[in-house]
Amino acid sequence: MIPPSIIVGVGGQGSAIALGVKERLKEFARARATPLTEKAELDAIEKSVRIFSLDIDHNTAINSRFTQNELLLLKPASPDAMIKARTGYLEQWWPEHITQPGGFINGAGGMRAKGRLAYYMLGRKHAEQIANSVDKLRANAQTAGYGIGTAITVFVYIVGSVSGGTGSGIMLTLAQHLRSLVDDDVHIVGAIPLASIMQHGPGDFQRDNIYANCSAALREIDWWMLPEKYRPASIAPFFYLNGTPIAGNGSDHKNETPFDLCYLFAESNQAGKPLPSFGAYTELIADCIALDVDSPAASASHSLISNILGGLNNKISPPVDDGSKATKSVLFAGAGAASIVFSVPETTGYLGDHLLLHVLDSIVLISQDRGDEARRWLNNGDREVLPNAGQVRLRERLKQAHTDVATGQVHQAEAAPEPRFENVDRKSWVTLVRNQRSLVDDTWLKTLRGLLARNEPIILNELWGQLLVTVNTTLEENRGNGLRHAADLLRGISGSLASRIEALTNEIDSTEPNRPGLRQKLDLGVRRYDEAIERLTVGGKSPFGGKGKQDAQAQTFLSNWWRPYVSTQRDIAEASAELSLLTNLNAHVARLRIALEQAITELERQRVDLRLGLDDHFKQSRGQMAQQDRVLADRALVDEVFARDITNAQTPDSQALRDIAVGFTTSGSSLRTWLLKPANQRGTQAQEAEHLSTAVSSAVRDARNKAADQFSATVQSMSIWDAMEHEFYARVGLGKVDTFLDAVGGVPGTGDAARRLTQYMQSRVSSCIAAAVPYWSLSRANQERYQ
């Protein structure tokens, strides 16, 4: 027996679809029956399925096909009379621009307010009649052995257009009213053809309002389908008259949604393919509902819709001791949503991985030349590592006075001693000069080198500490590129330091004839210096005249030989100290840069694994399909609805990416701690590789969880405009039908039925197959919002 089901057609289009559903169900029954069982199969349809037509006026072509008990007509008095009789409380609700609503001879005339007013006056008794059918169907199901008591699930499909006045004014209110009249084991499902379909239907005089009516009705449904905490603002005045809910108690249940599931049908599918005629859409929607009610897979899984209601439609909050009901998550879908289930945890995880990929891409894929930034850092403030015109060079800092903390002794650079020739006998000048040279080499130069050696580690630690602060700050940059930015900056600093180190090395040790280094200059100068010393005592007449002031020869010796010698020795000492300092600094930079690059390489590996993993993310068992068959979901559908609208919309400065990037770089994270660990605290290379892998994996895991959490509320509260599109599965497209039926082909007694249903589907959806319509898309419905 098929699940007990009620199909309520609202308005002319909804009534036509309801008739089509029952016709399809009878065709299904005949297809699986033998001549001996056909009557029993058809009788089972009558006992399991009820259809109703709820309309304002009598449409002879459609309503005449319903029995007297199935036809629920609203025949209210003139709206003018009703408004006048209830002026006191209708004024707050009735649209001011409708000053001449006219009568109901042509239905609601495209006016939503008239449709809702008609239901308010006469519709509630019809809702009670529909609700009473639930008990009758349950009794039939129990007699047939389908289940026991209220545990038997009953499905109520409310079908109709919301582009005219009747459906857009009645569907939501009817759903709310029914919700207040039935128990939790009754699932209310909406099926709505959107305005893009209805524009091809009859009633040219009403077409000016169809998009406005459809948009307004969908916005109302959207608002009520959201749990109360997600609703943007109250719209109670539209639902209450003089403090009384239009629908009865239904709209008082603020924590309940009017529909458990709502199908939306747009004119074109994702490929932009429409169906050939207006009637084809009526048949299509009827096919979809009929397959939900009765098909081999539906029977095997106790109705396809249970896949969603039992899977994706999880409770947002459980019942509490005071008797409050659990609130359900929101669910809109394209046709065939019940055929396959995307669970909230898996969907949020998938979307989180997508967003995480954006962060990883920004870290590992885009490297920038930060040489200018690196050079600015090296010369910023009091660092002045690189020589710049008009700035104090690093060598001057190396020669600054140094106070020994332990002893209090002050070490400072002193002027080099010069030989004093006055009052010295000329014959003693050579001895004087040689003694002074020994004093320079053994004392003054040693003192200078000692001062440079004391200042070098201080400046090195200062520069390294400042660099760590910069790297630390850069790692905390939450634009998704902290690691890459830090690595690029260190690469630029290392490049600038390497250039300066090369220049210093050449300055000291160059042997090029045209550009000799300091050591070569010193060697050449020493030889000439010794020759000059010997010439001090050579010559005829003594220019000094014995003892007295220094003469021109002594001055020439000091200017040409002594002072250049001392200056070269000083330059070698200072350049060597600067070279040692920058070499050690660059070694520190290189170690940290390598660590960062290792982390980025590890992240690249994680990124590749994540990219491959996304392809398999949804290859898992879905819902309650027979034999737990593996149904492969098309992840492109998830991409189109969520990844396109959310992930691809992220910019490098978006808050979402910033929040996730913090997962890699926030203070105290294992990865950041590992990167900035002092060299003397690091282990062996193998240990470091293991620590790095653990740190990166931890950072990726934390970021993935944070990204998934970001989407949790979105997926839990899916509304019309951001709802996830499910495959239009087994509705259109022969290949999809075969796959669908194969899922239940092994269930005893369904093999032949599956074959016959395949034959039926081939003929029923031939126009869809010819038009290459693979599935219907909510993105098309989204576009209609703006038309």
Helix content: 40-55%
Largest beta-sheet details: 7 strands, parallel
CATH topology of one domain: Rossmann fold
Uncertain segments are: 247-252, 296-320, 325-330, 336-342, 539-549, 620-634, 717-787
CATH superfamily of one domain: Tubulin/FtsZ, GTPase domain
Question: What's the gyration radius in Å?
Answer: 43 Å
The CATH architecture of one domain is: 3-Layer(aba) Sandwich
Fraction of residues in β-strands: 5-15%
Structural class call reads alpha/beta
Q: How widely separated are the two ends?
A: 44 Å
Q: Indicate the overall shape.
A: rod-shaped
Give the mean pLDDT.
70
Report on this model:
The protein is an alpha/beta fold and 787 residues long. The chain has a domain of 344 residues: 3-Layer(aba) Sandwich (Rossmann fold), CATH 3.40.50. The protein contains 28 helices and 13 strands. The strands form 4 sheets. Strands 3-2-1-4-5-8-11 form a 7-stranded parallel beta sheet, with helices on both faces. A two-stranded antiparallel ribbon has the order 6-7. The protein has a two-stranded antiparallel ribbon with strand order 9-10. Helix 1 runs antiparallel to helix 2. The longest helix has 65 residues. The C terminus is likely disordered.
